[in-house]
Amino acid sequence: MIAGNSISLRLFIVFTTIALCGMGRWAKADGGGNVMPASARPLGYSLTEIAADTALFNTGPRTADTVPDVPFQLLYVPFNSPLPTQNTFTVTQGTHFYVPVFFADDSPPVIGDFPGDVSDRQADADYLLDADEIGASLEIEVDGKVTDLGAPYVVGTTTDPLQDGGGTHYVGTGVFLTPMSRGTHTVTVRGIIAGAAWQDLVGGPTPFEFTYTIIVR
Hints:
By secondary structure, the chain is of the alpha+beta class.
């Protein structure tokens, strides 16, 4: 991942096939895979609810046999060493997607000033995005269309003890994608982690880029 040991396990970056154009906007791709608005509730789920249901998975080994029972195809990379920089998923038409992009939690060592109330979405966004804290700058590209992932996509939730050190509070960025058309789609997630609290821990800014292939039958 982008840093070693438990930090890399807790700061989950996934690349995936996503069409985005402009921060906070619903970007539409001809082949589907549209990034839904942060307020959307596909299949009855909010971003906060899906974050709660996937937090344990995201902080664990992220293997196929540990994927939670949710009505979405999760896009992820296994937590191996070295961390893969790409993955491929084959799905059927009509499949909905959830893409966890980046997260932090309160398992030790805690980075910066973790929010005291993870239900406060502004506090969550300040923590992940502000230059004094983690300072994540994130974008996602689906089939050549790019958008920034800003504050509307940041959520927080309480959890059972997490697999990366027993924390019980989780803050992350993720997106829902609409079903994709038949064929092959390419997704890239990229960004830089450059906040003061992050750099105090790892010694400098950390750029990253990962890519997914989605095959729709």
